Batch of 3 targets.
Target 1
Amino acid sequence: MSEAVEQVVRTEVIAHEQAEALANLLSTEVPEGTLPPLWHWTHLLERRPHADLGPDGHPTFGIPAPPGPGRKRMFAGGRVSTYGELVFGRPATRTTRVSDTREKQGRTGPLTFVTVRHDYTQDGRTLIVDENDIVYRSADSRVSSASGPGDEAPAPAREPSLTLAVDEALLFRFSALTYNAHRIHYDHHWARQEGYEDLVVHGPLQALMMGELVRRSGAGLVGRTFSYRLVSPMVGPQTFTVAATEAGVAAGVEVHDARGTVTAVGALEPLEPVAAPAPPIGRVSRTAGMWSQEALCLESGLP
């Protein structure tokens, strides 16, 4: 891949094997016919040469490209608009580009906010528009977190809810399924070097489980935009809980770690009937509000 690239296009057949692997990881039924919403995170992935990776396990160039050497990358949240489900056994295409970049000054140094947009199409239809919000912080910045093993507190007794027991093996397997080599998820030494007390539970795994609660409860994600935000890092092996908000699962969901701390929140809103064309670079949309909220919690250190 060239170091200066405006977009990356990848086409492949939506294979059933990846869905089977994810279903077994989550201890749920293997889907048939179509890929459940959010499960596209294990498909159409970039598989970069190992030589492209930096010390932290992320590529040093491409989409997105680190704004400078040594900058620490955090996954802050995103939005997934699902117009339809991808069909197994048929080719699909993912088009990836940077849709927004912003520079800010935080208490720990410079911060770069990057939004990466992925458009998923199949048989001439846009089925998924997926935006990822990524933050780059300075090399000497630190994070604070109370998540992880310790004095456990019960999650709110709200239904519906789901739990997932996370250990080192599950974190490693999810990294493999999503082709995510960031070392904070499987290398204790590197996690401590980035300022975490233990291995970090993937933000997309927490978002996926929020989506699973919506899907399994019958509310569904097709025809909706699922917006999610990581508000505190979850670290260390533990059993976490996904629960509906007080207003019910159709209004929102949230993740609670073993200590009862809310680490991620999600919300649903209806979609327009037809997917809009990709906006030009430099868009101003829902992300502007998301970033203003993210700026308030950056010191907590998002995964």
Note: The longest strand covers residues 91-106.
Target 2
Amino acid sequence: MSDLPEPAPDPERMPGPGDAPGSGSAADPGHVPGSGSATGPGRAPGPGPVPDARRERGARRTLAGLLLALFAGLLLYRVLHAGHLEQTALFYVGLPAVIAITVVLASRPRSVTGMIMATITVGLALAGPLLGEGIVCLVFAAPLFYLVGLLIGLVADYFRGRGANALAAPLVLLALVGGAAEVAAPPRDNEVTVVRAAAGPEVEKALAAVPRFGPFESAFLKAGFPRPVLASGTGLDVGALREITFTPRRSLGIGALPEARSVTLVVKERSPGHVTFSVVNDTTLARWLELREAEFSWGDGSLGVTLRYRRTFDPGWYFGPLQRYAVGQAADYLAGTFAR
């Protein structure tokens, strides 16, 4: 038994010169006994994947598209502001449209809609400190900006996924929607009336005296609307004046100083149980609408307040209902002030 020759070693299982004792076969030099695979605990991790040059180019192009869209929006803002067109549909629809279309042209993101929303968000965030806009203007403009951007983005994504022109369709949609909406826009001259229970003699005394204004109760007005803080003037005879001072305007601009705001009214008409004030000077609401008259009628245990104004912002389908609601809240605040 011991005289039998020993079997010759298998060349394929012989350890190589660089193999450690107890290592696996030469065909699998990274195998370590007890490890599950070549990437197990016995093997040092290799270098990460090589960066994808195409992905990097895409990221750079997306960033360039975002910056270009913001620059185009800023340039259009300056042009429209210089031309006193900041209250027109060209501003509130054209500005987000230019941003969205620039994104479509200048970048190739996975989602055009997502890229447009992100760009508009950055633009709105920068509008306060860089352009000196107030919080109320940004809050009111933001839904319209997002709506225009969303429509263009969804249409662009839809047609791009089908190999069609991703730019022509949003332009046609924007023209059709804008034209149709302006045809159905509400009239510019409007009035809102609010009625509250009140004793007639007490209302007349309150209207004839210096107004005493309290804090807002409406959550809508608390969102940043100017609040009357001081008033002067008495009497209800024709020609009697009221000077009302409001909280100063504080824009979000870097280093911006508070701006004083006030409204001057004069008694235009007077009759028993009725008085109409006409606005002769307004530095408070003039940036948003043209307030013209405030009419008070009392009797039979009630007080009616009517505010007449002219809408100066477009598009009317968006700002018309918004301004009407805001003026209604203001009329209710006045009715509550003089019916106490």
Note: The two ends are 122 Å apart (CA to CA).
Target 3
Amino acid sequence: MTTITTPADTTIGAGLEIDPAAWPKPAVYQLVTSLVVPRPIAWVSTVDPDGRRNLAPYSYFTLVADHPPHVAFSSIGEKDTLRNIRAVGQFVINVADQRLLERMDNSAGHYGPDVDEFQMAGVTPAPSRLVLPDRVQQARAHLECELVDVHPVGNGNIVVGRVVHVHVDREVWRDGRVDSRLLDPVLRLSRCYGRLSPEVTAEEEPAPHVFE
């Protein structure tokens, strides 16, 4: 296991005041990925213009709008996922649950464009409804997306997609909505994985904009 060393500071007092620009890159990575937690994972499936499939997880992922729904994830550097999305303009966010953790993690390796990560991970490709890339059949939810834009930021590339179709398995659908406890999504905590806690607060009323 690689150990990331942070700069020594014996005058902490009430806490650390940190200038990220003064810290080594690995130390900053460990710092911010330990603070922005938990992070949902976008298990992104894409296809290149020649029909070669790609599947990879991204933990820099979030919802950015709900009407119409848009999601975003960040690719650090230029990888096959990003190249395929630029070329084809579509992708699928497969929601990985705890049953799929090991297989999802297996798809995170640095493979060449000729390698089919669906096969490497031992998951089944299934046709999407509105986009060209396949979905992961074993996943309990899928967001089919069309590319809106790619924004370079720092060493990342923020991929924004409009959700044009959603599939949800009946196993996680209760009382007219998704039950997140049944969905049991994989979460990222710095350099390890986690899951949702069963302890939650009482549900709140929807935000005013939902009905506007």
Note: Residues 116 and 147 are 22 Å apart (CA to CA).
